[in-house]
Amino acid sequence: MTVNLPSQQELSPTVDVDLERVRRPQYGRYLDELEPGQTFEHPRGFTFTRGNILLFSRTFMQANPLYLNAQYATELGFSDLPASPQMVFNVVLSLGVQNDSEKAIANLGYYDVQFLRPVYPGDTLRAFTRVLERKDRGPDKPGIARIRTVGVNQTNNVVLQYERKVMVAWRGDRLPTTPAATPSMPFPDEPLSQVDLPLSGAAVTGVLSGPNTAVEDFSCGDIIVHANGRSITEEHMALTYLVGNSHPLHFDGEYSRSLSGKMSGNPIVYGGLVFAWLEGLASRDISERSVWELGFTEGYHTQPVFAGDTLGALSRVLAVEEAAGLHGYGIVTTQLIGVKNLTAAAALDKYAEDLFIKEDSKRALGKEKISDKIFEIERRLLLTRRSQ
């Protein structure tokens, strides 16, 4: 196709301003615009490159060489350097924000997150969401929507699936949302339960993967205090859109300051980035020998994070299990806890076992919530054994 380009003339002085023709496109959905059974295919998609894979891993302090060292990855059986699970999760969630949660007041939790296939340089992901449930808490109160999202690659194979809950207000007399496009393919109806991994069974090189993160290094009940913290700057606003998240709460100061309560003020750090930094802080001590993040569940952002806050992380081992049918591997389940503006060691000294009790359970137990605690989640990792 050839397009001729004549000289461009100024037109604005000759076109009348007509205030009757103003349009205000709206994105995201209010509670009454989220119908159970409704399905969205989200716009744009995201192509992974070796550059953005490495940039994400370095930015979020990933220590597992699987996401940093292509030679290491291929020796394990992967066809190229895979994207870290945190990157895949952040991208797929962010792709859905424009349709399912750009009007959300809060993300209430992550559930049954499963990573089913590797994502490599050159892969392009799209995301689909189905509304599973809508909970009405009264006409004057925000409700809760439960949604299921899947990420698919260019061959329509599911690489990631998860559920989450979002708190959303009723629309009332506000402008309706711009209609979404009709999905181009059916939504996968049945949850998948198998992980497709290309593992070769090759021994992990101990020098590259660290000395203390084999299956044998963990026992149920262990508590690991991760030494380093991470101070967050206004970098978070650019990183939010780097993964495609379009919620103005994370980068629009005028929007953020228009809110009330603890969400008001400067833009809040997108929770997926907080999780990624916490996981990175833990990776030297927990997942350096991991060959796959099997998934995570019961993930809650319990306090907001702002630029200027410093994150710290702790992990508690919940289970160490055999990996059925996989010689030389085991499954380790941990609880990851995030704190802010005190070190992980100081948090443990100050709050002791209460740090590991779910925040939403504390009222029933007669305990106070911890204002310094920002995140909690359970993770399952497939780790290599020292003796493969």
From TrEMBL:
Domain of life: Bacteria
A Pfam family per the record: MC_hydratase
Database matches in PANTHER family: BETA-METHYLMALYL-COA DEHYDRATASE (PTHR43664:SF1), MONOAMINE OXIDASE-RELATED (PTHR43664)
Protein name: MaoC family dehydratase
Native source organism of the sequence: Candidatus Marimicrobium litorale
UniProt lineage: Bacteria, Pseudomonadati, Pseudomonadota, Gammaproteobacteria, Cellvibrionales
